[in-house]
Amino acid sequence: MASDEPKAKKHKLSEDEDEKDVCPSKKTPPILSQNSLFGMGNPLLDICAVVDKDFLDKYALKPNDQILADDNHKALFEELVKKFKVEYHAGGATQNSIKVAQWMIQEPQKVGTFFGCIGKDKFGEILKQKAEEAHIDAHYYEQSEEPTGTCAACITGDNRSLVANLAAANCYKKDKHLDLEENWKLVEKAKVYYIAGFFLTVSVESILKVAKHASENDKMFCLNLSAPFISQFFKDNLMQVMPYVDVLFGNETEAAAFAKEMEFETKDLKEIAKKAQDLPKVNKERPRTVVFTQGKDETIMALNEKIETYPVIKVDPKDLVDTNGAGDAFVGGFLSELVREKPLDQCVKAAHYAANVIIQRAGCTFPEKPNFS
Q1: 328 is known as an active-site residue
Q2: Which residue in the list 52, 71, 328, 345 is annotated as catalytic?
């Protein structure tokens, strides 16, 4: 870390605190500017509505489930909009995290940039509007072949049945969007990058271009394991990107699936974190940090040959509304402090705060302003 500390909120190292445990700093106080945080992934328009049992039965949906839409669900999205009072939100894992980070930061607006693919249609226009309302700088690749990706959240009582139709989100093209000079300039402006593992199934070449840029310019590149199937069925893509990963996120089930595919021969989450941290890395000057969440149990972080644990904020079960957005919110909170070059323990604290707020609300939504310091 440089000798001159930021003037605001000085962080003094204790005798037993390693300098590398602190997010990298510069000789001048970091000024948070627009487009400092970059995300790329699968944009979905979340369509939320309270429905009845007949609607669930018609589309063979379970009251509390997450599925990908198939041919049987083609009419579901239009019927949902026509028949029920709906709310729209800009969704998708990476976009959710960028949205939460921007909410935590508040000012300036458009600190977060987001790239992804949508359709030239009504839902695409709504998605653009919702991204604007969330104050993120969304630059979508718009195409006509597939409709905008959507996720129907069918609410019955305390249950939410999620039906995702990726559609256009699967159609992102590096040469048609990322490679364009005006778009690449936005990538270059960022100092922290985050991509959820889901995008490994769409455009690994786009991820690699961004990851290599981050590594070559000593910037932070973050990746999420996202789901067990990513490690199970897209391991080759994942391992192409892993050497560039500075911060790896995952939950306990994703970590277990990753460990099994990597033949780590352990089910101990701390050991898995340590082994993931020790995987080959291109930028050896910056040790990899691994962050594993466990729902209501403590969060594990491997950094600099050490394992740290952090208890989550307790929540009364009666206040628990919806845990679906908890992981995205956790990452968003973490990124909001990482991009401000705060110590990693402060990043985890912000992550826990954001997740705690989101699980007490329906969907990945939040109040107007955070109450975090």
Answers
A1: yes
A2: 328
